[in-house]
Write a structure and sequence with these properties.
Layout lengths: L2 H12 L12 H10 L6 E3 L15 E3 L1 E3 L5 H9 L10 H7 L17 H11 L3 E3 L12
Parallel strand pairs: 1-2, 3-4
Length: 144
């Protein structure tokens, strides 16, 4: 069985509500995987700078920062193994930068070359980069 088939089987089992859990990732190894897999040719995150890989059109998608909902483990795993699953529909100019005309993500399929350990390490590296910022309410009682 290929690494891809094993990895996909593990991810599918993890999402089935069973007692199955992927191993914990390591933030430093996730950072190393981010660079080794050339994620920083299209993405910047934290203090890992994006490097120009000569993409046409250039892609510069910042990861992390303030979000309005928690980026769960499952969200990040899905974004890595199936980047076309959820593309931003609210910003058409951004969508045209990160997706082809048919709606598929421009992000290459890393499932064949990425190990399960690299996947869980990437998630461990990325998850703390997101901070939930709830939108302000018009009700002053919630904001002293």
């Amino acid at each position: 069985m290929s690494r891809y088939a094993i990895g996909m089987s593990l991810v599918l089992l993890a999402g089935c509500g069973s007692e199955f859990a992927l191993p914990e990732g390591d933030v430093q190894r996730g950072r190393e995987a981010f660079v080794a897999l050339h994620c920083n040719s299209c993405h910047s995150v934290g203090d890992v700078e994006r490097v120009d890989a000569g993409h046409s059109p250039a892609i510069d998608k910042k990861l992390g920062g303030a979000v309005t909902r928690v980026k769960s483990y499952e969200d990040l795993v899905t974004s890595i193994i199936n980047p076309s699953h959820r593309l931003s529909l609210s910003y058409p100019e951004e969508r045209s930068e990160i997706a082809y005309a048919d709606g598929r993500s421009r992000m290459p399929n890393y499932n064949i070359v990425m190990t399960v350990q690299q996947l869980v390490d990437l998630v461990a590296f990325l998850q703390p980069e997101y901070q939930v910022r709830l939108p302000r309410s018009d009700y002053p009682i919630y904001y002293p």
